[in-house]
Amino acid sequence: MSMKALLVIDMQNDFITGALAVRGALEIIGPIAQKVEEASKGDYVIFHSKDWHPVDHMSFKPRGPWPVHCVQATWGAELHPGLAHLLHHVGSWQLLKGQDPTVEEYSAFNSHLLHHLLTMHKITEVEICGLARDYCVKETALAAMNAGYKVTILEDLCRSVGN
């Protein structure tokens, strides 16, 4: 039996209603929760990523392009409450990224943990949803394709920073 992975990317408070809120992000919480529930009953392994920045991360203004967001152990870095309990309940694997203050990390594949876990579970196909389609979702999808996985971006379950 073939296993798939569902990757829920960066559904954190700062990207939904906080410092770097993505337009329309609130609209996809319910549909993502439904997808997570369905996937947990099927042949899926579920993962979720979180930006987990130190306070001096290089991407923060004035040095970088972004306002301060998703700082480790703050409200903004936490998963949105509409998904946090569910992801915990279904046993989702957590992937933290952006922890090195000198490196910008958009892809959930930046740590070798994700590739290792996908290989361990004999996963060849990944479905990706979350925020933001034009940054972290896109870079995770590209990295997954480059690593040889069949990739589907669940477009209806994503929102972008740009139009």
* Number of discrete domains: 1
Overall mean pLDDT stands at 95
User: CATH H level: which superfamily?
Assistant: Isochorismatase-like
Predict the CATH topology: Rossmann fold
Could you explain how this protein is built, in words?
The protein is α/β, with parallel strands linked by helices. The chain has one domain (3-159): Rossmann fold (3-Layer(aba) Sandwich). The protein has five helices and five strands. The chain has helices at residues 13-16, 29-40, 81-89, 112-120, 133-146, and strands at 3-9, 44-51, 93-97, 123-131, 150-159. Strand 4, helix 5 and strand 5 (150-159) form a beta-alpha-beta unit. Helix 2 (29-40) packs parallel to helix 3. The longest helix is centred in the C-terminal third of the chain and has 14 residues, at 133-146. It is globular.
List the helices and strands and how they pair.
Layout: E1 3-9, H1 13-16, H2 29-40, E2 44-51, H3 81-89, E3 93-97, H4 112-120, E4 123-131, H5 133-146, E5 150-159
Parallel strand pairs: 1-2, 1-4, 2-3, 4-5
What descriptors fit this protein?
5 helices; 29% helix; Rossmann fold
Brief rundown of the structure:
The protein is of the alpha/beta class and 163 residues long. It contains 5 helices and 5 strands. The model has no long low-confidence stretch (mean pLDDT 95).
